[in-house]
Amino acid sequence: MKMNLQFDFLVDKEKNTITVKREFAADRQLVWDCYTKSELLDQWFAPKPFTTKTKSMDFSEGGHWHYAMIDPEGQEYWGWTEYTKIMPIDFYETLDAFCDSEGNLNTDLPRAEWHVQFLDKGENAMVETTVTYKSLADLEAVINMGMKEGLESTLERLDDLLPTLK
């Protein structure tokens, strides 16, 4: 990450939330596209050295994104994102879960509500993401799974991708 770009990872154990504020050296429309188009998500949405592949995506209210993060040995870790509300270029809301390759949710792992907001910050874009869990135990589980480190690495990959898209 470029040192002058904002990155905040805030945990609120009373509200069972994680708030991530992340600035990118690109305009809001381009950053929005990187978050909402599978061909772009597949280029950055996984921590190094993982890669991402989309099985299916329908970016619309009631639609979904079914994807896998793949480790260097080929092991796949599947995710399911259900889009619940979309206000183009401003924000979207999702229900996020772990699943299998067929899209069956893994109820043993935490599910979360995500609110992803896109803001202008001068010439840059700011993405403010609030992730809400049902319980403190769920929140602590994802923190212990390395969510902060994983997000930091993932968002650095977006930093690397953005200049190639301008």
Overall description:
The protein is α+β, with helices and mostly antiparallel strands. It has a domain at 53-165: Alpha-D-Glucose-1,6-Bisphosphate, Chain A, domain 4 (2-Layer Sandwich). 25% of the residues lie in helices and 42% in strands. The chain contains four helices and eight strands, in the order ββααββββββαα. It has helices at residues 28-36, 38-41, 136-144, 147-165; strands at 7-12, 17-24, 51-57, 64-70, 76-87, 91-99, 112-121, 124-133. An eight-stranded antiparallel beta sheet has the order 1-2-8-7-6-5-4-3. It is globular, with a radius of gyration of 15 Å. The mean pLDDT is 96.
Using DSSP, what is the number of strands? 8
List segments where confidence is low: pLDDT < 50 over at least 5 consecutive residues. Answer: none
- Average the pLDDT over all residues and give the rounded result: 96
Kindly name the structural category. Answer: alpha+beta
CATH superfamily of the domain at 53-165: START domain
Q: Between the first and last Cα atoms, what is the distance in angstroms?
A: 18 Å
Strand content: 35-45%
